[in-house]
Amino acid sequence: xxxxxxxxxxxxxxxxxxxxxxxxxxxxxxxxxxxxxxxxxxxxxxxxxxxxxxxxxxxxxxxxxxxxxxxxxxxxxxxxxxxxxxxxxxxxxxxxxxxxxxxxxxxxxxxxxxxxxxxxxxxxxxxxxxxxxxxxxxxxxxxxxxxxxxxxxxxxxxxxxxxxxxxxxxxxxxxxxxxxxxxxxxxxxxxxxxxxxxxxxxxxxxxxxxxxxxxxxxxxxxxxxxxx
Length: 228
Description:
Order of helices and strands: HEEEEHHEEEEE
Organism: Acetobacter cerevisiae
CATH topology of the domain at 17-64 and 81-142 and 159-196: STM4215-like
Low-confidence stretches: 130-159
Shape: elongated
Structural class: alpha+beta
Pfam family, one: Phage_tail_terminator_9
CATH class of the domain at 17-64 and 81-142 and 159-196: Alpha Beta
Protein name: Phage neck terminator protein gp12-like domain-containing protein
Largest sheet: 7 strands, mixed
Mean pLDDT: 81
């Protein structure tokens, strides 16, 4: 016989933390790097390298940076977690060294915090059309559409799982990596590790009692007497 905890199978609701991290970081890279420079996710099958300079993102590590916290609603347990997500950014081609310096400087500046805050606000606003928020410093490509398909006066649907919030922590040292192309020629390649904080909530069902029944026992009766 297999012993169980007695809890029924729970449906755990977790926001797409990895996708949210790469999406926010890609928007940041596309804003500060030269126009038309492709920013791709590394380690993809059957994908040839672009011609000319390009950038690759590779997720390296998820590391908790705080003890998880728990709060409750009527029938849900919500676990709050903060993680340090390390993303390796590789820059190839002419100007890779200068692009790395630009990335390192801006990522560790207050401008990056403002950028990621605006990106998160607009992500939430696009999920709740009646509460659109636009930051004055938000690039036009990140701003939500002004029009909404929902009729006027219709309350926005509640978010079952809030999107994770992504914020910059710090950047590691930039380093040059030898890169030999198919023609056995050296090309520029620089790498830098970017550390981002992802704050998200994990939700799962929580059994709750809506009412309680109390049974009084007479301590002088045999039924109410404590056992020896």
